[in-house]
Prior knowledge:
The protein is α/β, with parallel strands linked by helices. The protein has helices at 3-21, 25-36, 40-55, 57-67, 74-89, 94-107, 112-124, 126-129, 141-146, 152-161, 175-179, 217-224, 243-250, 262-274, 315-319, and strands spanning 169-172, 185-189, 192-195, 212-214, 233-236, 254-258, 281-282, 297-299.
Amino acid sequence: MKKGLKIRFVIFEILLEIYKHNTSFENIFNSQCSLNNFSKRDKSLINNVCLNSMRYKFHVDKIIKKYLKKKSKKNQYILLLSAITQIVFLDFKEYAVIDNSVEIAKKINVYPGLINAVLKKICAEKIKLKKIMVFFKDFPVWFKKYADNLDIRKKIQFEENYYKTPSLHLVFKSAELLKNFKEKHISSSSRSAFLTETKKIELISNYKKGDWWVQDFSSMLPLHLIPGLKNKNIIDLCSAPGGKAFQAISQGGNVTLNDKNKKRIIVLKENLRRLNFNNHILNKDILNLSFKNKYDFIILDAPCSAIGTIRRNPEIFYKNKT
Length: 322
């Protein structure tokens, strides 16, 4: 199987697994990338297409309804979702997307002639299709009930932004490192900033030096507002990928990091290495963790629904069917 076809087939498998079984994107993405030994560039491509396919789900649903009278079965729907996202919203080479999609259709019991015809029609009208809009009424019932307390202004603001790639927020080891940072940015605190230009993480200034890490502004705030962490004994119980622990370490805290998930531990170790931190890591279930040491602070950022971070977690809309 040619490389481009292989990558798009893996994209299809990831999206199908999430759609059918409510699997975590992070888990299935890491599993597929490990099995296929993809390069960083390939992983970046897969990540980009998968996340944007989920972000543009409601846009693509409207496009599919324009060209198909019958409701698509799962395989056909996921294949079209990915292909339309690539053609209309990511501006990928049309012939490559169509050719690969037709080949994948042959392997998954989807009529290739239909895929070919629909995607060619979409290519001819893609400038017009880019302008398709999604409104609050298009969201699932469960979300509309959840967000019923939002006023009209906030609902419109959500409509306009929920599918957009979030700005990258960096937290620095020190205020001095942020002060000397060369990339265009908007400071969010004395030690953190939003990048104003989209850029691959590995290409951002001082990535290899480990001057900063990626962390959401909302995630950064709690520890940023706690003074006096220097020389305090701290344990982070659900640490990976490590943002809150890194904040405490950079402020001089004696931090032990723990995470139950072994795959997330691998990411945590990689992040610690890049940042030149050398802290003790545990791989324990906190329900069975026996505390022999006393701690001044316990950090517990437990896994949650992430409903407030839909831009970073587009699978929330993608997975829920009720």
